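G., the chain you wanted modeled:
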Amino acid sequence: MLFSFSLKSSILLIFFLHGIVFSTLLLIKGLQTKNKSSLWLSLFTILCSLYIAPFMFGFAGWYSQQPYRNILFYLPFQQLFLIPPVLYFYFKTLLDKSFRFSPKEYIHFIPATIYLIYSILIFITDKVILNKDYFYADGEDKDFSSWYQIAGLFSLIYYLIQSLKTYYQYKTITYNVLSFADSIMFKWAKRFLIAFLILISIRVLFFIVNPEWDEFGRKFWYYVCFSILFYYMSISGYTNSIVSLTSFKDSPVNSDKAIKFELPNNIETADPLTSSNNQKLEEYEIPDLDTWKGKIENLMVVDKMYENPELVISDLGNLLGTHSKKISQVINQGFNMNFNDFVNHHRITAVLQKIEKGEHSVQTLLSLAYECGFNSKSTFNRAFKRATSLNPREYIEKNLPK
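Predicted structure as tokens:
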């Protein structure tokens, strides 16, 4: 029996073929640019294409015909233990430029490996050893067993939580390292997390509405929604060529070496991102805090380093002959700000001084913002309103009436 092009099978076939195409394009892109996140997204896309394949073939009539039925039953199309960690590692490589896949990361793929071995053993037992349908005597595809579907759902939830942790870690580090953090808080990363959450939500919704995962006709709309979602994630991931500037390993927030250098011997060091260790860091006062505050403030006020739109915290450390962790600690404890807010504070102060001098009447406000180190209108407007509770035009009308 040839492929039956019904409405349902044709719709899923379109998504299936497009998934194969974009997986190939992402693979080529990843190899050419050495972009690991593209390689992970390529793997995710092909796995999603395989995920919808059983229902595509089912609507095409193949599950009711031999020899297709035997072949489809024994192929583990739905890799529910593999898709979640692949999504997580895509997100990890997207945000952390220092991330390297190490042997310890293989632990995330143990469940998927066990399920693959389980599928192979079923095939060998039924088709080689017994030569009869022992495991498949009930006529049910093991990919749609309730235990497997539920376990896959919990796996998705776990890796969403891990991705959220990664994002907030990235956000914390970025604001403590870069003066232009607002402009690189990747919108695609946020949309990706939202898409990840929607993916889980539709699985939960359809599982509640219809827990019979092997019922083809009643699951069509779930697989259409899933197809649209993974199609969006694949296309958006392909078109958003993101290169992270943030290294989790070498950042001042996550530098074990720097922390050990700063803390006295009676304070134990652990993971610098844990709450207990952060509390120890906050409680530890830098003996020469005022001196260092003066040095850093001098770089901002006298040398006007804030005018550099690409200023990073290591620039200050290099000029003052110390490491980034020291600078970060001084700014956090001495000024109660992260590095990004600290630099933007001085940029806004400089803009306000120019406005007081009337320079806004001969130049645009955006020109003044660029002169003071801002690199985008949106970042300037956000920082200005955060500092004054007014947007620039409102501030001028209120404080400098004609």
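Residues 146-177 form the longest helix (32 residues).

Shout if anything looks off.
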